[in-house]
Every structure is written in structure tokens, then in C-alpha cells.
Specification:
Chains A, B: InterPro entries: HTH_LacI, LacI/GalR-like_sensor, Lambda_DNA-bd_dom_sf, Peripla_BP_I. Two copies of one chain form a homodimer. By secondary structure, chain A is α/β, with parallel strands linked by helices. In chain A, 38% of the residues lie in helices and 18% in strands. Chain A binds a DNA duplex (16 and 16 nucleotides) through helix 2 and helix 4.
Amino acid sequence: MNRKATALDVAKRAGVSRSAVSLVLNGRGDGNVAKESQDRIRQAAKELNYSPNAIALSLRNQRSRVIGILSDEVVVSPFDGNIIGGADDIARSRGFVTLVMDTERDTARDASAIETLLDRQVDGLMYVTVGLKPIEIPQGMLRIPSVLANCYDEHPQPQLHHVIPDEITGGREATEHLLQWGHRDIALLAGSVDSPAAPLRVQGYRDAHALAGVPFRDERVFMAGWDIDAGYHGAMKLLDGVSPADRPTAIMCANDRLAVGVALAAARLGLSVPRDLSIMGYDDEARIADTMVPALTTMALPLREIGRAAMTTLLDTIEGGEGTTAARTMETMVPCRLVVRESTGPAPH
Amino acid sequence: MNRKATALDVAKRAGVSRSAVSLVLNGRGDGNVAKESQDRIRQAAKELNYSPNAIALSLRNQRSRVIGILSDEVVVSPFDGNIIGGADDIARSRGFVTLVMDTERDTARDASAIETLLDRQVDGLMYVTVGLKPIEIPQGMLRIPSVLANCYDEHPQPQLHHVIPDEITGGREATEHLLQWGHRDIALLAGSVDSPAAPLRVQGYRDAHALAGVPFRDERVFMAGWDIDAGYHGAMKLLDGVSPADRPTAIMCANDRLAVGVALAAARLGLSVPRDLSIMGYDDEARIADTMVPALTTMALPLREIGRAAMTTLLDTIEGGEGTTAARTMETMVPCRLVVRESTGPAPH
DNA sequence: TTGAAAGCGGTACCAC
DNA sequence: GTGGTACCGCTTTCAA
């Protein structure tokens, strides 16, 4: 537990002043410090295993190279962690560190968490949520460069840039995949009303039908929820005791867990997937969609890309000067990606 | 984006010196500063919305009240986030902040992550993993108070305290639950060999049989893996085309995802759960075990408790002085908790 | 009871 | 080319 070497230690060992050490180690040695002094300094630094104290740097420079990430429950919940992963990729590659705080969905903690982060001199702030949702922007976020990932400001005049997935196109392309297999009666288990993602995916579902000239029935769309049991019971309602002619030939789900429930129901009813019924997931949840039997065809949420895009925007405004901030567009939409596996196939006739 | 108030601003406004401000706001005013000055200072601080700059504090005090948490993939993966949640609970309640870094399973990044954390003057370090596993302790962790959560040092003379779940008892109690329902032929899908948790749970399974005087057969134990497909195929091997007399009446799984696969297989085979087959999970994964149909009986991993216990130990050594460090026990085992739901029931006869 | 000053570890400006 | 010094914001000791 011995103390770390300081710049002064290096200076002494190299027989020079602290300022010389600072100059050399920051690449401003040439033209200011004699070559041989430079060598001695670098040598001494290496020997002492010197690295500058980040705290002192922050205090001096008023910049910490730390980005604060505030999440509603990304750390604690099983979902969307890759947004932070992607954000961290970019941050590290540009010499920043991310400091993550999770409020576990207690928005009352937002303000104080932001305050803590601000007290630590973070250079920028990112708010990340599990699932697309509108948020109330905590006061403090407007005081330094900030960005929203997977969430957005509902106010008429949004003040922060946000990065979100393109759910409408996602819903549309998922539906189109099913239409291309010849399905003409596609049910949709659409999540729950309190999520803004649900209606967007429904919108995409409608668009796909309209574009393809295939009529669709509103009663085929269910606001079911997001979990296995919801998928199970939704599918039972659609399939159990219904004659093959009246059954949907495909069920599209607003996430992979619903799809698991649907598959379970199909199995109980003796229906084979995808021969008798095609099942489409959404999210491409790791170790669920890819390990289901059969593996789920699904619409992958671009989590890493969202994180990367959000962090890139943020660091650009931090490093690029404040000049054109106002002129920037306030929204980035990242496309979802269709992942075709084995749970979808040609429509039975 | 206007600058924050400093202690000097407060001092000016209250018409006193900076030192007075410092004394009063740190509760050392009485006996040093006049009562009315104290009031004016507190008043001014409130008006300016003053809070001390954490960076300056760290530099000055050589303590940051930040705990660095290094995880292999807790943030990014869907698992075990609640360890961090529990750790954060305790940290916050004791006036600390946690700084989380996730290496995404790249142990080559461990050392530099620790270095970064150390440069930021963290007062303590916690290493957290997804799933119980042995780790190589990164050098830097020995330089300041540190603790391991859900992982441990394999070396003969462990240098760091670790907190882990009691997997043997967990495996035993899960098995006992099944034995109590009258099951006498219990198969075990035991995860994979590369996880130290798997053999421990098998051990518990054996212990339960031995204690109950029920013979068991080694060929009923399969190192299957951890995912849905593994559970599915494992169950198929055990059940498909096997006469009821030769079938296990219960399948115990090393996690809930395996249990989902087993349930899926049972459904395909027309077996009713729990009437024809009892299924036992492990982990009590949120929104999987509780939302399965039927809901899974499972052995809950004490994730929050692990995080809380680890953070408590760590903060105790940081705040409690170094005195008795050496005398402390180096291991804390946290019991798992049986959660009875609907996937288990009396053995058929 | 109060204020001045040193110092935490750096950086950067300015004499020399 | 080099070293001295002020300053970032705060705490703490010491003298007035």
C-alpha cells in the first residue's frame, strides 16, 4: 500500500524541475527541454512507474475526461446493457472513462445522482434507459453537454440530442419477412400500452400490410405485456380450440420473451414451429433468441450502435467546441436488424 | 452552464473567511465561529446552492469516497446485475459512490482498468463476476482495500476476502424439496464443467440423497450447459420414447433457462407439469422464473445479499481502521433461498 | 473568534 | 533551455 510516485519524485530522480517533467511527459518537451534531460525524465518516469494523478489533473484542468452515465435500471435489469457497452467502447477509444450510476428506476434519485456526478467534474452526461421511453430531464443535465440514449425529451422544444432505435421500420421489416413467407393472417402480440415502443411497432406492422396490399384486422393486435406468461396466454387465445382455417399462421411478438411463451403454447397444443405456425421475436436477446428450440427469427435491437452513436455525439460536442451546437439535428434513429433463424417459414395452406 | 459556487463565494456573501465556511459546513463551527456568523454562512450556502467540489476534496483529503467496481461482464450481460445493486445500496447509505467499469470479459483489460481507478483515488475496489468463478487477482487490487464478490482467489494463501453463494447447500435444499414431494428418480441437468458452481450443486444433490437414504444414479447427472437448447435436448434424451416407469419424475436444473428448455420439451411430448413431471430451476431469474407457465420453483441466488455483504466488509475495513485486517475471516458464504412456485408437485406413481 | 497561509499533485506562464 | 511560482477548491493549523 505504498504511495504512488508524483511528478516531483520523477523530477528529483531526473535532476530537473517539476515543470520540465510536465512538459516532457505531455509531449511539449522539444524546443523547451534539452534532449538528454528528456531522456532522463522519461527514464525516471518509467522506473518509478509514474502516471499522473487524475484527481489533480481534473482540479487543474477543470476537465476530468469522465463521462457520467445515469441509467434507470440498465445495470440491475437483464436488458439493454449493451448500450452502455457500446458507449464505453467509444469513450475508452477516445481517452475517456465512464462512471455509471443506476437509480434502479427511482426517478427521485435522478437529481441527486446528477449532482454527485457534477461534483465530480464529469465532462458530459448520458441518460440511458431500459426500453424506449420519454423522460423528464433532470435539471443538472442542461448545465453540461448531455445526450439521451434509448429515451427522449417529450417537451415540444427538446433540449437534448437523443439516440433511439427506428421501431417503425423494425416493425415493418419484421412483418415484411412474414409476408414474404406467404403469411396473410399475422397476429401481433404488441407489448403493453405504457411503452412507446409498442405503438410504433404496431405502426410498422400496419405499414407493411398497407405497402403489400394485404388487408389486416385490428382484432389481431393484442396489447399483451412483455413476459413469457403473456405470450403463452395470448397464443392460447389465438390458437386453442380454433380451427386451422381461423388460426393465424404466424404470430409476431414485440419481444423474445413473448415468443418463448408462444412457442410453449404451440408445443402444448401439438403445433409444430414453423411448420404449423411461424413465430417472430423482437430484440434478439442474447442467450434466449439464439438458444430457443427452434432458434427464434427476430428483429435485433441495435443496442451497441445506440450507445456508440450517443457517445460519439456527446464527445463531439465536448471536444469539438461549442460552435455549431444549436444547428445540430436533435435526433438519431438507428435501424434495427432482421435476424433470420428457424422459427419462421412458409405459411401452411 | 454558469460556474458552480465555491466556498469563497459563500465566504464573501456571508462576510467571513473561507476557513470559517469550511469549519461551519463541516460541523466544527461551535466553539470556533460566532453563532451569528454560522447562521449567515449556512444561509449564504443555501442561497448559492453550494456543495463542495468533490475533486478538490479528494485531492486534499487523499480520500475520494468512491469505490471502484470492476466487473467481467455484469453490466453488459443479463445476469447478476443485482450484486452491483446491492453493493451500491450499502455504499450510498454510507456516503460512498460506486464507479463501475466493465471489461466485457477481457481480462487483459483488468490491470489498466484498475490503474485508471487507482489514478482516480478510489478508496476501495470490488471485483464482481457473472457466475461464480476463480479469478487471477490483478496486481493493483492489493494496494488498497479490496474485496471479491461472486468470485475468489484460487491461490493456496488467498489475499482478499470474498463473498460467494453457498452452492452446496443450495443444491441440497433444492433436491430435498423434490424428495419431500416423494420423488425418487430425480435427474440433474448440471450446467457445464468449466463452472465451479456446477460441481458444487451436484455435491448438494448427492448430499441430499445420502441424508435421505435415497440411492441415486450417476447417469442421472448431465453436464448439459446453461441454455434453453441444452435443457431441451437434455430433457428429450431423458423423456422421449422412454416408458413412464423408466422416466425420472423430476428434473432439477442448474439454472432457470435450462428449466425453460425442459418445460418446452415436456410440452412437445405431451407431458403435463407438474402432474407428469416436476421441474426445478435455479437462480430465480427475474421475469423468467416468475413468468413461466407454470411458474418455476427455483433456488434463488442471493445476489443483492452478496453485493451488500461484500460492500459492507469493504467499507468496514476502509473506515474501521486497519487494525484487525489480518485476523478477519477471508470468506463469507451467503445462503440461497428456495422459492416454491408451481412447477413442482407430488411425484406421480 | 477570525483570517492568513500551507499544501494536496499537477500545469502553464514568465523570468532568468 | 530551465526553474520558480501562481493557481485549481478545499481543509487545517497557527497567529493575531
